[in-house]
Specification:
alpha+beta; single chain; three-stranded antiparallel β-sheet; globular; Aminoglycoside 3'-phosphotransferase, Chain: A, domain 2; 45% helix; four-stranded antiparallel β-sheet
């Protein structure tokens, strides 16, 4: 399961992002993505300034952007439009430039067996008796496991763009006029449809009702084929968050009671249960 990967230190004009280890390549991903965007989509994300090593740990130093994180209230139409514009600019970075920059596939990417990663998390021995409705949660876990064993209808991804991966509302800064994106440690080569499925299923956004999923997808401008892939990928990310919300996991500890049941109902609805 995910744990804290970095610490942040702020100065007047800089952010120092110190990663706790080198193991998952987060610092390399962050630097590669920010460098690519500084050249091909300036203003969407912080400009990378330099790399350092502090006490043996990698540090990425970037510019400090204006604005406050989203998350306190549902996005306005202007915020949704600006977020969609930022994502569209990401997806419009030429694929040749992504390859030339050596940007790898995003973490938990569409070809890196994300389903095989989520399945054991769901199948772990969880004490569902701690849930408000153990029967409902158990039904959703069973349905998700069955889907993960044979994800019917999930097409091959179209790896055509760079993505941010983690669109936690805290990773979107709003300065009153535009949205900018921060935190690319998991970002990389991806399918825009896969990215958007991940984004709209993020519980930090979905459980709080912060985002109109269809409005965002419309504003980004997915074509018909990509919209079909988007819909097909949503159960994977819904299952991911169901796993995170099971007793003993990080989402269980950080979210109010009843969140697991809300996610269970959502998973069952997506799977037609």
């Amino acid at each position: 399961m995910q744990t804290q990967t970095h610490d942040l230190t702020f100065t007047g004009a800089e952010v120092h992002k110190r990663f706790v280890s080198w193991d998952q390549g987060e610092a390399e991903r962050e630097w590669s993505c920010l460098s690519l965007l500084a050249e091909h989509a300036p203003g969407v994300a912080p400009r990378p300034l330099r790399r350092e090593i502090v006490d043996g740990s990698p540090v990425v130093v970037m510019e400090r952007l204006p604005g406050e994180p989203l998350g306190g209230a549902p996005l306005t139409s202007a915020q949704t439009a600006s977020l969609a514009d930022a994502l569209r600019r990401l997806y419009d970075v030429p694929l040749a430039a992504v390859h030339a920059a050596g940007v790898p596939e995003r973490r938990y990417g569409p070809t890196s067996h994300a389903a095989a990663t989520v399945r054991p998390w769901l199948a772990d021995d969880h004490d569902l008796a701690a849930c408000q409705d153990a029967s409902l949660v158990g039904e959703a876990v069973g349905a998700a496991l069955a889907w993960l064993d044979a994800p019917v209808g999930v097409p091959d991804p179209v790896l055509s763009a760079v993505g941010i991966a983690d669109l936690n509302p805290a990773n979107v800064l709003w300065d009153g006029e535009r949205c900018r994106l921060v935190d690319f440690e998991d970002g990389g080569l991806s399918d825009p449809a896969y990215e958007l499925a991940d984004h709209v299923e993020h519980i930090g956004t979905r459980l709080a009702g912060l985002l109109d999923a269809e409005h965002l997808v419309d504003a980004v401008g997915l074509d018909e084929a990509a919209r079909a892939r988007f819909a097909a990928y949503r159960p994977l990310w819904a299952s991911f968050w169901l796993a995170m919300l099971l007793p003993g996991n990080g989402g269980w500890r950080r979210n109010p009671q009843g969140s697991t049941e809300l996610q269970a109902r959502h998973v069952l609805a997506l799977l037609g249960g």
